[in-house]
Amino acid sequence: MACWSAENATKAYLKSLKLGQKANEPDVVEFVSALAAGNNAQLMVVACSGAADYTTLALVAAAQQTGGRVVCILPGNEELYMSEKVLGVTNLRHIDFVIGEAQSLVLNCYKESDFVVIDCNLENHEGILKAVQMGKKQNGAVVVGTNASAKGSWLSGGAKTQLLPIGGGLLVTRIAASTIERRRSQWAKIIQRTRVRRAPVHLRRPF
Question: DSSP 3-state assignment of 171?
Answer without folding.
Answer: strand
